[in-house]
Amino acid sequence: MAVKFLDWYAKIAVFSALVGVSMELFMIKTSFYGVNFYLMNLALELTSDASAAAIALAEWEWILR
Fold first, then answer.
1. Segment holding 63, helix H or strand E
2. Which of 23, 30, 47, 65 is the most exposed place for a label (fewest CB within 10 A)?
3. pTM of the shown model
4. Contact 60, 41 (CB under 8 A)
5. pLDDT by residue (tens digit) across 8-64?
6. How far is CA 12 from CA 6, 9, 24, 42, 53, in A?
7. In whole angstroms, what is the distance from residue 19 CA to residue 9 CA?
8. How do the residues of the chain divide into helix, strand and coil, expressed in percent and rounded to 5?
9. CB of 31 within 8 A of CB of 64?
């Protein structure tokens, strides 16, 4: 019975993968990650734990370069 719907599950998996890839490409093209990183840093600087958060986020800054 599970084999009966295998092609349907495969179509759903391929469609989902294509949607995910297109979303990622859109976010990269529109600089979503850079803007999000900047806004996150700005928000964390305004909190009381800003220094600890800034140190933690500085380790991940190389990803955006």
1. none
2. 65
3. 0.54
4. no
5. 899 999 999 999 999 999 988 988 888 778 877 776 776 666 666 666 666 666 666
6. 10, 5, 18, 39, 40
7. 15
8. 85, 0, 15
9. no
